[in-house]
Hints:
The complex is a heterodimer. By secondary structure, chain A is mainly β.
Amino acid sequence: GQSLEQPSEVTAVEGAIVQINCTYQTSGFYGLSWYQQHDGGAPTFLSYNALDGLEETGRFSSFLSRSDSYGYLLLQELQMKDSASYFCAVIEGGKLIFGQGTELSVKP
Amino acid sequence: NAGVTQTPKFQVLKTGQSMTLQCAQDMNHNSMYWYRQDPGMGLRLIYYSASEGTTDKGEVPNGYNVSRLNKREFSLRLESAAPSQTSVYFCASSEVLAGEQYFGPGTRLTVT
């Protein structure tokens, strides 16, 4: 089986940096993805890590350590529009298994 | 280029009724997926189709059936709806890499 753990809630202020962690247990691992979902909206793809290290896309970066079964999403220069739920997901057997999500609240 | 489209956007069913949720993608993706999302929860995979002509069960397939009609379309059928199937249903597609999926806007289903 597989399981993913991420914090349920994170709060930060506008302009700050926030890190959302994700630990996973899976029988076969191919990669870790991150998705953003605004209230009432559809999930949107943010990043994917198959290899150890940091991937940067604008204000967002994602990190993976396969030996530690751990990854994180780093959001810099936080904006109010970044308030959303963030999901990590692992690829197993050609499909994605999602975590429960982290609700990020950005305060002015 | 509409991406992934789903119909209907909203639906209310009575227990025991049946319905089909439609999904289509215009990105020429090989793989398509159906998820459900309950309040405050992550997405749970119902069924997926790795390529045209194949379908496989996900985490929560009971009470559902799917049809991969062609490369573009993947439908989800509830044969006898139950209140436990009240949820938001998302369809998604991916080219090859399952980690990068594109989602439709969702169908909000209520079963009374």
